[in-house]
Amino acid sequence: MLALIAATSFETRLLRTRLQKSDPLPGRFPLFHGQLDGQEILLTHSGVGKANAAACTAILLSHRKPRALLNLGCAGAYPDCGLRIGDLALADGDILADEGSDSPAGFLGMEELGLPLLRRPEGDLFNRMPTDPELFRNAESLLRAWASEQDIGFATGPFASVSTCTGTDQQGRQRQQGGAICENMEGAAIALTAARFGCPLLELRGISNLAARRDPDQWDIPAACRNAERAILHLLRHWPRS
Ligand SMILES: O=C(O)c1cccc(C(=O)CC[C@H]2O[C@@H](n3cnc4c(=O)[nH]cnc43)[C@H](O)[C@@H]2O)c1
Question: Which UniProt keywords apply (predicted)?
């Protein structure tokens, strides 16, 4: 079984047309189940933000044992990453961009503070949370070809998870200096929790807006969500059968 997690119901509209509603998970997280392209699927909505995302992932993985977790949804692209609205981004990691301390010398991350967020034999996790390298490699080659056929832009790189969406051009330029290509509000919390449970994670998002001056007239959340969902369906068609 594979599990899908998105923040909101508008990010899973297409997928849910082919799934049935189940009893909710503890904590009032909705649950859907069914088959998508021959794969047994569970789908849940965490709600927006890192607190919801971590709680939902922990409860899902405490009650179900999926082979992998796929995080999908929409995201804001940083100005110099080359992504446009409707394009797709695949994460090779997700950075908790707000966790740390401000100082007269600038932002100090968790490593500089000497505070790991997770201690593991394979290496402590500070701000940058991993996605699964093998899932990432397979998805990258499948999606690069598919996106090109569909005339959809595609990029890979680290994502940033933030508590506050970018609202000015200056903030977008400043945030991209952390190395991320786009920002969201859940991915790194899902990745940290998946790492705690040893569940392989993939994160794929459609670009709904630029992480720049707030201008909702320019956003296209439906196009971003639809392309991310179509890309997930493409991955599921090629996913190894268990
Ligand atoms: O500000 C509003 O009025 C508003 C109304 C509907 C949706 C939003 C969102 O910002 C969506 C947040 C949701 O989508 C992800 N997301 C999408 N774009 C961004 C972004 O530029 N920065 C951070 N997160 C973004 C995020 O993961 C949330 O789940 C706002």
Answer: Hydrolase, Menaquinone biosynthesis
Average pLDDT over the chain, rounded to an integer: 98
**ipTM, two decimals:** 0.95
Q: Whose CA is nearest to atom 24 of ligand 1?
A: 184
Model pLDDT, residue 241: 83
- Closest by Cα among 33, 51, 55 to 42: 33
Give the closest residue (by CA) to ligand 1 atom 23.
184
User: Which tokens sit at 209?
Assistant: 């807006």
Mean predicted confidence (pLDDT) in 210-214: 98
Both tokens of 155, joined, read 């990029």
Does 242 have pLDDT greater than 90? Answer: no
CA–centroid distance, residue 209 to ligand 1 (Å):
9
Test site for ligand 1: of 44, 175, 185, 215, most ligand atoms within 8 A of the Cβ: 185
Residue spans per domain, the chain: 2-238
Q: What is the pLDDT of residue 1?
A: 97
Q: Which residue has the tokens 């190894």?
A: 240
pLDDT in tens, 22-76: 999 999 999 999 999 999 999 999 999 999 999 999 999 999 999 999 999 999 9
- How many C-alpha atoms does 108 have within 13 Å on its Cβ side? 11
Cα angle for residues 73, 74, 79 (degrees, 5° grid): 150
CATH architecture type of domain 2-238: 3-Layer(aba) Sandwich (3.40)
Q: Residues with Cβ within 6 A of ligand 1?
A: 7, 48, 73-76, 162, 165-166, 183-186, 208-209, 211, 216
